[in-house]
UniProtKB/TrEMBL annotation:
The keyword Ion transport does not apply. This is cysteine desulfurase. Its EC number is 2.8.1.7. Belongs to the class-V pyridoxal-phosphate-dependent aminotransferase family. Csd subfamily. One of its GO terms (molecular function) is pyridoxal phosphate binding. Residues 37-408 form the Aminotransferase class V domain.
């Protein structure tokens, strides 16, 4: 075991965070004169030097459009761009890199499925199953498609422990079910949903399954072949990559059966004045000049996470999560939502503190250099369901430490005591 020496001279075991923190330049800045404690990772992650360098290196050394040129710069850009696709395919264990479609983000990827597959396959009387915990990105597209097709939306509710209610799900699935679209991990409750069981039951009725993996891809090992999902989406910016890039995984034959989502350059085979034929996968769904640098940097982020090991990341975050909950439950005013450890759950905690508005808590914590999220986290229906107008959310990643949690808890207690003194 490797040990490090702290400022106090005490030696302690070196954690994963101790190893990786030097790779993240922003973690070493100050906010309001205090060392930054970044606990808003469910909103977006910070970026390591390797990812920042990948962006800079592309623009400095081989900036060029992909697929369209035979000169050296274009060939180098194309190789890097397609190489990143292969890395993503391996990261989620897709059968082929053709099953990976680049998108601006998970929102665009879900809309791709909704407008390409949904409008072509759903009709009046069909049913789409979602959950009350879905992010707006996995809710609004299906609302729009249901309005256009006449399909009906059904919603899985929560257990008393505020987890996916599988019994209720079983009661909803039937011959009318054509699609189940569900988050792998709730960005508010932190529960990890039983995707394999959800997929297995849906497939018994011939329904397709889309998995929103935005909160799982950065934190858990993913195997789309083992999950047997039909589609899976993720956003790069939550997994150490830049903003403006994400991906859709889809089964090859299913993607081939779907019509294009956007039309234009790159996604065509032959174009005539009155009709066109389309390129093979994955390019059929990638119209126009793509986010080349961002895709290459996503590949660098995948390399970075893979080199650490997703099992190692999940194990370390589980340790941090247990520690965070042990500290939070000691504050009597705090109410935490979602399942509690030792249940396997995401490395985040959404909570309220009596009559103190989460925005006020977040503002006070920011004065101490601590960044958390406050609001409805793009899950307004869920907040109505749990009878909370909004919540505060502290979300962890593998570069966070127990010492940062201690700093957060101490500042949170001070903030709560300050507001309590005002209200009393």
């Amino acid at each position: 075991m490797t040990f490090i020496q702290t400022k106090s001279g005490i030696h302690k075991p070196q954690t994963l965070a101790d190893t990786v923190r030097p790779d993240f330049p922003i973690l070493h800045r100050e906010v309001h004169g205090k060392p930054l404690v970044y606990l808003d990772n469910a909103a977006t992650s910070q970026k390591p030097h390797a990812v920042i360098h990948a962006l800079e290196h592309y623009y400095s050394h081989y900036n060029s459009n992909v697929h369209r040129g035979v000169h050296t710069l274009s060939s180098e850009a194309t190789d890097a761009y397609e190489g990143a696709r292969e890395k993503i395919a391996k990261f989620v264990n897709a059968a082929s890199s053709q099953e990976i479609i680049y998108a601006r983000n998970a929102t665009e990827a879900i809309n791709l499925v909704a407008y390409s597959w949904g409008l072509s396959n759903l009709q009046r009387g069909d049913e789409v199953i979602l959950t009350v915990m879905e992010h707006h990105s996995n809710l609004i597209p299906w609302q729009l498609v249901a309005q256009k097709t006449g399909a009906r939306l059904q919603f899985v509710q929560l257990t008393p422990e505020e987890e996916f209610d599988f019994g209720h799900y079983q009661s909803l699935v039937n011959e009318k079910t054509k699609l189940v679209s569900v988050s792998h991990v709730s960005n508010t409750l932190g529960c990890i949903n039983p995707i394999k069981d959800i997929v297995g039951l849906a497939h018994q009725y011939g329904a397709k399954v889309l998995v929103d993996a935005c909160q799982s891809a950065p934190h858990l090992p993913l195997d789309v072949q083992d999950l047997d999902c039909d589609w899976l989406v993720a956003s790069g910016h939550k997994m150490c990559a830049p903003t403006g890039i994400g991906f859709l995984y889809g089964k090859l034959n299913l993607l081939r059966s779907m019509p294009p989502f956007l039309g234009g350059g790159e996604m065509i085979a032959d174009v005539f004045l009155e009709n066109s034929t389309y390129a093979d996968l994955p390019h059929k769904f990638e119209a126009g000049t793509p986010a080349i640098a961002e895709a290459i940097a996503l590949g660098a982020a995948v390399d970075y996470l893979t080199n650490i090991g997703m099992d190692k990341i999940h194990a370390y975050e589980a340790e941090l999560t247990t520690y965070l909950f042990e500290k939070l439950i000691q504050i009597p005013q705090v109410k935490i939502y979602g399942p509690k450890p030792p249940k396997d759950r995401a490395a985040l905690a959404s909570f309220t503190s009596g009559d103190v508005h989460p925005h006020d808590l977040s503002t006070m914590l920011d004065q101490s250099g601590i960044a958390i999220r406050a609001g409805h986290h793009c899950t307004q229906p869920l907040h109505r369901f749990i009878k909370a107008q909004s919540t505060a959310r502290a979300s962890l990643y593998f570069y966070n430490t127990k010492e940062e949690i201690d700093t957060f808890i101490a500042s949170l207690q001070e903030s709560i005591e300050f507001f309590d003194s005002i209200f009393s």
